[in-house]
Amino acid sequence: MKVISTNLGKPKKIVWNDKETTTGIYKFPVKEPIFLDSEDVHGDTVVDRKYHGGIYKACYLFSAGNYPYWKAKYPHLEWDWGMFGENLTIDNLDESQIRIGSIYKLGSALVQITQPREPCYKLGIRFKDQNILKQFIDHGFPGTYVRVLQPGTVRIGDSMQLAEASKNPLTVQEFYTLLFSKAKDQDVLELAIKNEALPPNKREKLKKWA
After folding, report:
1. Contact, 168 vs 195, CB < 8 A?
2. DSSP secondary structure string, 94-123?
3. What is the per-residue pLDDT across 9-44, written as a single tens digit (0 to 9) for each?
4. Residues 160-188 pLDDT 10s
5. Which of 29, 75, 147, 203 is the most exposed place for a label (fewest CB within 10 A)?
């Protein structure tokens, strides 16, 4: 897996339900390396820290391989890397194979896979269509957030190399499917509840389905 693009966002004012708010989802490619810190990416915009940033969402990764699928669905948009609000666009990132809890060397940083991205209305605003939320869920390739175990710099062309595979086999895609399924797969549910790389509050909420 290689870094195709490094992306940062500036604050942008938007209107939602007749109210003005600010978002950092409008990220665009930058030429310089980016620095992954413990709770966010230096120079990036994180507005609502209840849902973005923090230890378990320090940096968001999305697969370059999914872009053709979405470009075909939304050909009228002005496309560039960072369209999904990702800080890093990664070639060959496969959520069906990547385990939650696995640790990767990424540039000079060391990161741990924590959780998939759950889309909100701000993605719909960037795509000018709220229908993308259901489409994004149904497609099943949401990208992944990472926890930064060792802060470091990432630049275009850097590799994302597996340093330590999670002993828990739960993949990003399996957990994503679990989150949005009405009938919870009990085997997957058990793996999620036991996976210490997931945020504690998420694991706690899942216990009601066990």
Report:
1. yes
2. -TTTPBTT-EEEETTEEEEEEEEPPP-HHH
3. 998 888 887 788 888 899 999 999 999 999 999 999
4. 999 999 999 999 999 999 999 999 999 99
5. 75
Q: Are 93 and 143 in contact (CB under 8 A)?
A: yes
**Residue 25 CB partners (closer than 8 Å, separation 6+):** 9, 12, 85, 122, 123, 125, 126
Tokens 């708010």 belong to: 21
β-bridge pairing 88-91 and 59-63: parallel
Q: Give the torsion sign (CA, 164, 169, 170, 173).
A: positive
Which runs of E-coded beta strand occur in the chain?
A: 2-9, 12-16, 19-23, 27-30, 34-36, 59-63, 88-91, 103-106, 109-116, 144-150, 152-154, 160-164
Distance, in Å, from the CA atom of 75 to the CA atom of 173, rounded to the nearest integer, reads 26
